[in-house]
Amino acid sequence: MPNPLDEFYTVKVTPSDDVKSPCVRNCCLDNEDVCLGCNRTLDEILAWGNASREEKKQIIENSTRRSASKDVLISTAI
Which of 16, 34, 36, 50 is in the most buried spot, having the most CB atoms within 10 Å? Predict the structure, then answer.
């Protein structure tokens, strides 16, 4: 006889789950609501859980671009 709790404890994996979150658990927002750890905007962080695979890829691309831009600003300031 099936256990009725099996459904409760089963994790449902959707195709969008195969994109790893860029979160590095160093969460702190700057004055523009961009996380200093992962370089995602607050809106992108909030949208991540319901985002499609393609949307997640776009968020990662955006955060990578922001990170590279910050690196350039830091290196030119030194």
Answer: 34
At 62, which helix (H) or strand (E)? helix 53-77
DSSP bridge pairs for 35 = 29
Whether the CA torsion 47, 52, 58, 60 is positive or negative: it is positive
Residues 42 and 29: beta-carbon distance below 8 Å: yes
Rg (CA), the chain: 17
Q: Is residue 30's pLDDT more than 90?
A: yes
Spatial distance between the Cα atoms of 23 and 2, rounded to a whole number of angstroms = 37
Domain ranges for the chain: 24-77
